[in-house]
Amino acid sequence: MEFPNNEMITENEMVGAVEAILFSIGDSMEIERLAECLDISEVETEDILATLEEKYEKSDSGIMLARLESAVQLCTKTQYYDILKKFVVTPRKYTLSDTVLETLSIVAYKQPVTRIEIEKIRGVSSDHQINRLIELDLIKELGRLDAPGKPLLFGTTEQFLRSFGVSSIEELPQASPGRIADFQAEAEREVSEIKI
């Protein structure tokens, strides 16, 4: 393999280079961007990432490679959290109220979604809940809908994936068809009770 400065390096050195990059940035990095930086293909980058994953899984290493949608990040293995808590100041934990959690669920399962769509599902104004989720970096603005008024679109963030321990939205639990039918029946019952 050829390094960006035209120096030939071994595959092991390239694995080390990827590891160094991910360690030094400390945050997630898009796989496509990583490939561009190293001037290699995404397929080659995926091979290197697979080698790193294998290395961390087989050893007693305290770190692991976390996949977050189309990005990767070096993270601490969960089994070492109790030890780390003795040395690191634990970040303040936030509890999500039922209304904020309900709003987050709508965004997670319906994204990209507008504020109006969220409020239509919830039946109430959701300004506070959306602002709180943005403040906690669990949701973000994805752009604007090509419709009158150009409403903002919201979606989940990498912090959401980290917080819920999933590597992509597809890993979120899905409601069973029976449970969905129960929800529909309950909604229809509530609507019929409102009518006079």
Number of DSSP helical runs: 9
By DSSP, the count of extended strands is 6
Overall pLDDT? 84
- CATH class designation of the largest domain: Mainly Alpha
Task: Give the SSE map.
Layout: H1 11-25, E1 29-30, H2 31-38, H3 42-58, E2 63-68, E3 71-76, H4 81-85, H5 98-110, E4 113-114, H6 115-122, H7 127-135, E5 139-144, E6 152-156, H8 158-164, H9 177-194
Antiparallel strand pairs: 1-3, 2-3, 4-6, 5-6
Helix pairs in contact: 1-3, 2-3, 5-7
Question: How would you characterize the overall build of this protein?
Answer:
This protein has 196 residues and is α+β, with helices and mostly antiparallel strands. The chain folds into two domains: 11-85, Orthogonal Bundle (Arc Repressor Mutant, subunit A); 98-194, Arc Repressor Mutant, subunit A (Orthogonal Bundle). The chain has nine helices and six strands, in the order H-E-H-H-E-E-H-H-E-H-H-E-E-H-H. The chain has helices spanning 11-25, 31-38, 42-58, 81-85, 98-110, 115-122, 127-135, 158-164, 177-194, and strands spanning 29-30, 63-68, 71-76, 113-114, 139-144, 152-156.
Task: Give a quick set of tags describing it.
alpha+beta; three-stranded antiparallel β-sheet; Arc Repressor Mutant, subunit A; 51% helix; elongated
Q: How is this structure best summarized?
A:
The protein is of the alpha+beta class. Helices cover 51% and strands 14% of the residues.
